[in-house]
Amino acid sequence: MMALQFKLEQYPPICGGGSFSYYPFAIPPIGRQRNQSLQAQALPSRTQRIMESISVSGEVGGAGGSYSYDALKRLDQLWSGICSAQTDVLEPQKVVSSVPGLFSQSDVAGKAVETFDVIVCGGTLGIFIATALSCKGLRVGIVERGVLKGREQEWNISRQELLELVEVGIITEDDIEQSIASIFNPNRCGFEGKGEIWVEDILNLGISPAKLIEVMKKRFDSLGGIIFEGDSVSGISIYEDAAVLQLAKAKILSSRLLIDAMGNFSPVVKQIRRGKKPDGVCLVVGSCCRGFKDNSTSDVIFSSSAVKEVGESEAHYFWEAFPAGSGPMDRTSYMFTYVDPHPGCPKLEELLEDYWDLMPNYQGVSLDNLEILRVIYGIFPTYRGRKYIDFQHEDNVLNNALVSCYCPEQFGDASGIQSPVSFGGFGSLTRHLGRLSAGIYEAINGDLLDSNNLSLLNPYMPNLSASWLFQRAMSAKKESNVSPDFINELLYVNFRSMQRLGDPVLRPFLQDVIQFGPLVKTLGLVMITKPLIIPSIFKQVGVPVLLDWSGHFFMLGYYTFLSTFVDPVIRPLVNAVPAKMKYKWRRQLEAWQYGSGLDYKMSNPNTTKAERGMGTGGEAWAESKSLP
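That's the Lycopene beta-cyclase sequence above. Prediction below.
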């Protein structure tokens, strides 16, 4: 770290020096202006100096898998293109195309290297669904552009969510224990200048993706799965009886079903969206540093006190922080913000510049005393409305951008089956993996691979649509005409209300599950205790958004009613109907259950004293720190 600090100090401020002191009342000569401009352009930013001083190795695919400054600039360039694009842009390159006739009777059939039941494109999180389907006896292949391995940066999750993988049967509890890199309690929800809430067992495990993905690879291989590493998809042809992949290295693979898990910027997704600009984006930056002496607790969310100007825009910063498993004094902190893409939006590098200024005060430590291990950054786009694909009615491609309420890919980070507030793909995957793997298996067995039947695997879920309002409320806007501390105040009031209503209200929300009853109780208590905040909510989100949200709120209540009272009557009868009808009714019952958030399991896992941080004393301390 001393070497890093020395390197930073070698660069004077861009406006430093005495150039202008020689011309106190006049403009410097043109030549000197040009030289100064060139010198200013040549001086790297603090972010560049920091990132180029860190040894970068082992970059992998998936969100958060790249750490280099060059990768940051590429992502910023992509982000700038999204912001500057008009609503209607040119059609992206066509990757998926429809071919009439049967693949088995085509000239290409004899060139196919391998034939599968399912091919998953993108393996970082795609390997989980691939392994689940392999466990059911299907022949599954994975295509991964690079080497299939997990990133260094940990995934944070709760044990309750992680055990869903055990229930699906793709991993054992011993495998989970081997993959846990860190355990910490209690966990804070903080609001700068307002107060804080302390909870237990929320995102309190740090999972090593490198270890977990390696376990999954061995499991997948033992089940007969095949991984095509170091190869990418160059084209997808949809026949009447197969989906055929043309790989960059000239290999041809065929399957009955293709699952796209290539991430936010999948070429399939680009074609589906036809270049449409995202409705909202979460920008995330952060770092993993060594040197934190007090490192036993985490921040699930910490809200800054007020909106801040960043370039030509405004942003409200939120924070997360977790102990890292790489060392007792290692800690990862994230700073993120929600924006609507438009010209002038802050770049990731601009956010990182703010991060270096603000993080030390947030974490109570000087940057000089920290060794920066890696820098983290990412973009998570989200889309409103259900977007259907129309590749001349190409079936056999499962990608939830076909029917997703929000995000563009079925399996992976920022997946479309979780809210636009958290943007977390791994926790969402664990909750939906059993439902999706069972549904896909049933669709393949029943030869129900047309687009209508596949769309039932990713139905409209009103709890996700309702959460769009929260994303809008947490996005800073210059024209909203509300006080700079409105967002922080709104969050504080809502979290304080949820805490007073108890764990059945607070804990599902903290784990990204929106339920009708808890939502009604929270809104009611907020209106009673803080009625003057209501007009500011209208100003912040706008009347059209509130009206749209009201429809989803009604449907959330309707789905809750159906899942609570109608499901128990229908479920015993489903097994008696024909296979096609059974498939549709099972998907409908799942839509009611998951769309109302009633899939959430309230539990009190038997945690050890080490997991609960300080044991009984730690619990008492956490309680004493709660809001009144």
